[in-house]
Write a structure and sequence with these properties.
Length: 321
């Protein structure tokens, strides 16, 4: 359950009075999510999401995240729009935490990704990359290759309790990635966490992208690598090359990628798998007893990583050079 900060009806009514939403009719905590506290609000003028930003989100990054949503929405990307209060501010305080109200998006996230989802996703991802081109703020990807070693160091001592031999295998993978990570590929604003739970659909139409709280400046192809991992493996961890082809082909119709980007995909896919493996492993080993949020399985990403280690070229993802 991702409601870490409880908000009283009185505090909320007082907070909402500074916006032009009409009377607050009801509100409830949202169980989904990991990082922040989220509430669904019904007011006279519609539905809204209230987010209270918890400790893992650095306050100095919030103008980037909120500004990016506003920028993308202004360029036709279906994502939440932050609301401005009467004082003009989108980022405010509630119950001692930074807080913002954003617009509510209709749709449901897919329980099991199908090929049509991957196709719609590819096009939306490319459009988002293009729409971010003139976003003026910058944010370094704190969870790229130079952020992985501190995470591994924080886990290495106990990694073998999760799977024997894991610490050594991860050390060797990280060394490989540190030595080979590309330094020059087309880059811009990326989402960096575009998992199925962050994409909404109605019937076969993609209706929205949410959760920009890992967005940053990095290689566009790294976002594709995140999506390959999150959308193109079946429940038994078999890679579905048709889904990958749909994702990449529909992406390339909106934004053609270069040979260098395609060639880098296997390595970027390994890196993206390691990134989610490490954050999950960290949460697995460090989550407090009795915590609300159930940590996600790190070993799912170890299996994905091992698949990419065997890949010899981008043809494995359904596209040839
Ligand atoms: N703009 C939105 N419109 C509709 N539902 C939303 C919106 N933002 C968040 N949600 C709901 O809240 C849940 C958690 O949001 P998310 O941003 O993923 O949280 P966290 O950053 O804590 O992981 C989502 O799974 C979704 O159900
Ligand atoms: N997508 C990450 C976890 C981050 O959760 P989110 O609710 O913020 O998307 C993972 O699966 O490890």
């Amino acid at each position: 359950m991702a409601v870490y900060t409880e908000v009283s009806a009185e505090d909320l009514a007082c907070f909402v009075a500074d916006y032009d939403l009409g009377e607050l009719l009801s509100f409830k905590g949202i169980a989904e999510g990991v990082e922040n506290s989220n509430y669904l609000l019904q007011a006279e003028k519609g539905s809204y999401i209230l987010t209270l930003y918890e400790k893992r989100v650095a306050a100095e990054d919030l103008p980037f995240f909120l500004g990016l949503m506003e920028h993308l929405a202004g360029r036709g990307i279906s994502c939440p729009v932050p609301l401005h209060a009467g004082d003009g501010k989108a980022l405010r305080q509630l119950c001692g935490r930074p807080a913002a109200l954003i617009s509510f998006l209709e749709g449901l996230s897919p329980r099991r990704a199908q090929t049509f989802h991957c196709s719609a996703l590819g096009a939306a991802l490319a459009r988002m990359h293009l729409a971010g081109a003139d976003f003026p703020l910058q944010r370094r990807n704190a969870l790229s290759v130079d952020g992985w070693r501190p995470l591994l160091e924080a886990c290495a001592g106990r990694a073998d309790t999760v799977s024997p031999g894991l610490a050594e295998a991860l050390e060797s993978e990280l060394k490989h990635l540190e030595a080979n990570w590309p330094d020059k590929l087309p880059a811009g604003v990326i989402h960096a966490d575009l998992f199925p739970d962050n994409v909404f659909f109605r019937r076969e139409q993609l209706t929205g992208i949410i959760d920009f709280y890992f967005a940053c400046n990095d290689f566009f192809a790294y976002d594709l690598a995140v999506c390959l991992n999150a959308w193109c493996f079946e429940q038994d961890n078999a890679f579905n090359v048709t889904k990958a082809r749909m994702l990449l082909q529909s992406y390339s119709r909106e934004r053609a990628f270069s040979e260098a980007e395609l060639e880098a995909l296997p390595l970027l896919a390994r890196g993206s798998a390691l990134r989610f493996l490490l954050t999950r492993l960290y949460d697995w080993l460090h989550h407090p007893e009795g915590a609300f949020v159930q940590p996600k399985d790190p070993l799912e990403y170890w299996k994905k990583l091992k698949f990419h280690q065997e890949v010899r070229g981008p043809g494995a993802y359904g596209l040839d050079l």
